[in-house]
Amino acid sequence: xxxxxxxxxxxxxxxxxxxxxxxxxxxxxxxxxxxxxxxxxxxxxxxxxxxxxxxxxxxxxxxxxxxxxxxxxxxxxxxxxxxxxxxxxxxxxxxxxxxxxxxxxx
Length: 106
Known about the structure:
The chain has a single domain (4-103), classed as Alpha-Beta Plaits (2-Layer Sandwich). Helices cover 32% and strands 39% of the residues. It is built from three helices and four strands; from the N terminus they run βαββαβα. A four-stranded antiparallel sheet has the order 2-3-1-4. A hairpin with a 2-residue loop joins strand 2 and strand 3 (48-62).
């Protein structure tokens, strides 16, 4: 059985999040990318606590496409160290996963 994942990343603007979503879907690296925001993030960066408004991208894809997804996100992303995490999908409806499989790069 194919292993599906969700790849998440955050950006500092809606425009950048939309560019990432467009690239992943157009290149058939993700069947769907949801853009959520704005959200507030608090994090440590170079020894200081920072807070920022960000946009969250959630891409639906297959595990074997992760390296291509990561490379595509890095080509667009403006952060020095972008959050790019692959989270496994443990369960999913057959009809949704069948649709996802049909939409992704072969």
